[in-house]
Amino acid sequence: KNQVEQSPQSLIILEGKNCTLQCNYTVSPFSNLRWYKQDTGRGPVSLTIMTFSENTKSNGRYTATLDADTKQSSLHITASQLSDSASYICVVSVGANNLFFGTGTRLTVIP
Amino acid sequence: DTEVTQTPKHLVMGMTNKKSLKCEQHMGHRAMYWYKQKAKKPPELMFVYSYEKLSINESVPSRFSPECPNSSLLNLHLHALQPEDSALYLCASSQARPGNTIYFGEGSWLTVV
Predict the structure, then answer these.
(1) Coil/strand/helix, residue B78
(2) Which residues are CB-neighbours of B1 under 8 A, at least 6 positions away?
(3) CB distance B4–A43 less than 8 Å?
């Protein structure tokens, strides 16, 4: 069964601290893995996209890793800011249009 | 700012009303999508259009009727909705081949009363 599981479900960190979000998937055949940031009541915004052959990809303070052997991905946020408070969604795709969404991690950054 | 524009941002409609949600993109994408998202849940795929043809319909009730008039526009016609249809409706677009980023609009908040 194709599934994407994320942990933790929610996370509270102090401003300036780092954090790591986890994503485990059983989707097959794997096409690519994306991380999205979604502010409450707004559409998801793409952070990174990685294919099978990519182990790591960075976008500013966001760094995503992918281990295709263990089917795990992580999103590391460095020097968190209040504006990082959002839901972070891991999305794994099969082919062009078939996406499997994780349930997301709700991150709250407090001053 | 997203390059996928959705209107209206908020819509309140009665169960006997007919309304439409609209989506527009000018990135030359040939795949467009409708998703439904309930609070604290991930988006659920409703429809996919590829090259203006409906390619995926995830068993969505007929009270939701999609339309793709051209490569830049995607509509979702609503009729005889139920209160449980209240949700955030997200439009998205991408190149019609694997591995491309899917761009989401800001969404249309729909409340059915």
Answers:
(1) strand
(2) none
(3) yes
Give the residue with greater pLDDT, A18 vs A28. Answer: A18
Task: Answer whether B2 sits within 8 Å of A45, measured CB to CB.
Answer: yes
Average of per-residue pLDDT values in chain A? 93
**Statement: residue A95 has pLDDT above 80:** no
Quick one: tokens of A62? 């966001």
Q: What is the pLDDT, as a whole number, of residue B2?
A: 60
Q: Are A68 and A86 in contact (CB under 8 A)?
A: no
pLDDT at A96: 64
Q: Do B104 and A32 touch (CB under 8 A)?
A: no
Reading the block at residue A34, the tokens are 């994306």
CB contact under 8 A, B99 and A43: no
| CB of A104 less than 8 A from some CB of B | yes
CA distance A42 to A100: 19
Query: Nearest residue on chain B to A88, judged by CA atoms?
Result: B42
**Chain A residues in contact with B43 (beta carbon < 8 A):** 44, 101
Interface A-B: count of C-beta contacts within 8 A: 61
Cis preceding-peptide flag for A8 (omega within 30 of 0): yes
What pLDDT, in 10s, does the model give residues A38-71? 998 889 999 999 988 899 999 999 999 999 999 9
